[in-house]
Amino acid sequence: MSDINLKLLQSFLLVAQHGSFRRAAETARRSTAAISMQIKELEDQVGMRLFVRQPKKVTLTPNGHLLYEKTARAMRDIDDGFQSLSDIATLRQSAVTIACAPTLAPKRVGGVLTTFRRRFPDSSVRLIEAPPATALEILERQVAEFYVGPSVSNLKTFTFEKLTDEPLRACIPPEFDRGQRAISFEDLKEVPIILLDRSTAIRTLIDDILHRKNLSLNVAYELQNAFTALSFASAGLGVAMLPSIAIEMAEFDGFRVVPFREPEAARSVGIIAEKGYVQHNYSEQLMRLIRAAFVAPADI
């Protein structure tokens, strides 16, 4: 019963609506004999008559009425479903939704969106700020078309297009500053440390380096926001360890920015997208601007 051809049901609805094999055939642009054969095939499959055949018209049997009500409702639901998909596809052609790591949004991505809006005034862009830990979930749910931020683990069904390496920096207030041109993690063992919390990619990087070195730091403050970490360092509360882009986006004094000696003290930043996902025109144009922003930000 589950193998009934949808075309048989469509012909059944036409005959029921027109009360005539001939008029149903004209509407379907088929022969009357073909429509009649389809109705016979349907009746054989359900094991009962669906129409009372009279010389000038056909009418539904009680069982035919039951099937008509159920089938007509199901067809309306199918039509509504396809229309909804069509509406979504139409909207998708002009609207782009992307997700971005919070530290990247103000400095790099914000300028890109301004350029994009100027070049494509008929489009619209929605930006979702989200930590890297939630990037894959956002893409799996198709809330956003791609994610701009640090690489994450367990990509599996996703791709990561690397755009740049972003180094880790130390923001050192005068009372903890020994004047070094570069420092190592071991140099910071005795000072209070300001870190972002464990939901951030940069914290994962720092914890991995510390684990490999079998080293512990005096973490005095664990924060959610890079701006707060910078303000704490500026107030002399400790040494903040942050990605370089987070330091560039805020204008603070009261500390010196120092690079790390460890070459692994950097994270890869790029675009995460679902494998096989086809970007539409506006989405692809936005991707191109983002790529250019990381290669030569001053030129955008």
Main sheet record: 9 strands, mixed
Shape: elongated
Query: What is the number of independent domains?
Result: 3
Helix proportion of residues, in percent?
Answer: 40-55%
Distance between the termini: 61 Å
What is the CATH architecture assignment of the largest domain?
Answer: 3-Layer(aba) Sandwich
Query: In CATH terms, what is the fold-level topology of the largest domain?
Result: D-Maltodextrin-Binding Protein, domain 2
Q: Oligomeric form of this entry?
A: single chain
Taking all Cα atoms into account, the compactness measure Rg is 32 Å
* Overall pLDDT confidence: 88
Strand content: 15-25%
Number of helices: 10
Strand/helix succession: HHHEEHEHEHEEEHEHEHEEH
Residue ranges: pLDDT <50 for 5 or more in a row? Answer: none
Structural class: alpha/beta
Description:
The chain folds into 3 domains: 6-91, Winged helix-like DNA-binding domain superfamily/Winged helix DNA-binding domain (Arc Repressor Mutant, subunit A); 93-163 and 268-299, D-Maltodextrin-Binding Protein, domain 2, CATH 3.40.190.10; 165-267, D-Maltodextrin-Binding Protein, domain 2, CATH 3.40.190. It contains 10 helices and 11 strands. It has helices at 6-18, 21-28, 32-46, 62-94, 105-119, 135-140, 201-213, 226-234, 244-248, 281-295; strands at residues 51-53, 58-60, 95-100, 124-129, 146-150, 158-172, 192-196, 218-223, 239-243, 256-259, 266-274. Strands 3, 4, 5, 6, 7, 8, 9, 10 and 11 form a 9-stranded mixed β-sheet that branches. The protein has a two-stranded antiparallel sheet with strand order 1-2. Helix 7 (201-213) links the parallel strand 7 and strand 8. The longest helix is centred in the N-terminal third of the chain and has 33 residues, at 62-94. The mean pLDDT is 88.
